[in-house]
Amino acid sequence: LMVCLQASGSILLWSVLVVLLIQLIASMLLCQLLESFIQDPTGNLEVQRSVFRYFGTTWRCLITMFEITFANWAPSCRLLVDNVSEAYGAFFLIYRCVIGFAVLSVINAVFIQETMKTAQRDVEFMVQQKNMEKAKTVTKLRQIFAGIDQSGDGLVSWDEFKPYLQDPHMRVLLSTLEIDAYDLGMVFDLMDDGDGQLTEDDFVAGLLSLKGSAKALDMITVVQMLRRLEGKVEEALHCHA
Question: Which of 120, 135, 159, 192 is 20 to 30 A from 18 via CA?
Answer without folding.
Answer: 120
